[in-house]
């Protein structure tokens, strides 16, 4: 399905600030649909024509009522014969009301066409489409909601709505169904919906609302005052005891005057409680990783002390290898302890690993350079830990064996990281002496390569391949799994 921008760019003459104005409208009109209990369609003239045809750029369905358009109409081209009201609104720049068939249906609908004005010109039309009420009397809530919608419709026709700013998007922003408070020009309460009254009760406010200022009811109205001064919507969160309310104040304008304020309220107490639990859980997990890292470092220090007391060179070498393996695992836990969640940027692990291995090759008689190319991106901790051990073993194996046979004291070891088609590609390359003829990982008697083979094929579910060409290249392919919409 094509996007709003693609539809506007390929089928209409909208561009620059006029396009941004229409985009802002489509991003903020859910409240309008809910206030009028109706579907809204946003149409713009087809480029190169005189307004006789228009294209549907966006549509929104009400959450407070039943939709008349269960199908997606975005991209539909409407001609003047099917909707003469739309063409008339484009040409006259006035709100046009009448009856017309629903698009794609013979069923009749009540249609209100509202011109969208920007910089003095009509750039689009919003149609409000609903089934006839068949003489049903409207309740108090419906009357107040519809009159509020009419005020915003007039602002659209004047060019003052949507507001001339990109509104911040809030994942838990209040909607009309959450609770509505309407303020008159003197900022006294004209109407409060039952849900809004219930939310205020949870804040401990039980005053009779009609005719009072919010401040007289014991309600913080700083957000309302800021919205009036700035002539822009303002979002604020109010906390009282264990209760949290999210408030959005939207000024209603008539020319330069503020003629009212629409206040949307949402009780977000449960959401904030959940957020606090998640933060507490993240903090606990980070603390666990921090303690595991400290314990691993303590074990590594104890191994160093034990190694210094040993007389056997072979035993000392074995202790040193075990210490390096433990330190490589500790690096992963140290990285996880700094970030929330169970994923890490693997580059933050590779660089410390390289430094750990480099400590073993520093000295006046050796000049080995270790480098990292590419980036593995974000990896889950249960993949990063065995991969860190594998890289430590492969780099240390290159240090110990690649530059020994011919007596060389200098060389390069490079770790290359990349992603390709759901696979993590890891290469450890050196320019040393290469592999002996017929050498395979499976036939290797060394503990390091045995650990590598086991971790790669069993725990990581990948493959390992050794090549010898002007040195040695160890090539790993590790499958990445999908988590949500991300590939990790």
Counting DSSP E segments of at least 2 residues, the number of strands comes to: 20
Report on the biggest sheet.
6 strands, antiparallel
Distance between the termini: 27 Å
Contiguous uncertain segments of 5+ residues: none
Residues in helices, as a percent range: 25-40%
Q: Pairing-aware structural class of the strands and helices?
A: alpha+beta
Strand content: 25-35%
Tally the helices: what do you get?
12
Q: Based on CA inertia axes, which overall geometry fits?
A: elongated
Write down the Rg: 34 Å
- Give the averaged pLDDT, no decimals: 85
Strand order of the largest sheet: 3-2-1-6-5-4
Descriptive report:
The protein is an alpha+beta fold and 488 residues long. The protein has 12 helices and 20 strands. The strands form 5 sheets. A 6-stranded antiparallel beta sheet has the order 3-2-1-6-5-4, with helices on both faces. It has a 5-stranded antiparallel beta sheet with strand order 8-7-11-10-9, sandwiched between helices. α9 (313-338) runs antiparallel to α11. The mean pLDDT is 85.
Task: Label this structure with key terms.
single chain; 488 residues; alpha+beta; six-stranded antiparallel sheet; five-stranded antiparallel sheet; 12 helices; 20 strands; elongated
Concise summary:
It is built from twelve helices and 20 strands. The chain has helices spanning 4-11, 16-28, 30-36, 84-92, 140-158, 194-202, 222-230, 269-309, 313-338, 347-358, 381-401, 447-459; strands at residues 39-45, 53-60, 77-79, 96-101, 108-118, 121-130, 180-183, 189-192, 234-240, 243-254, 257-267, 343-345, 367-374, 378-380, 410-420, 423-430, 463-468, 472-479, 482-483, 486-487.
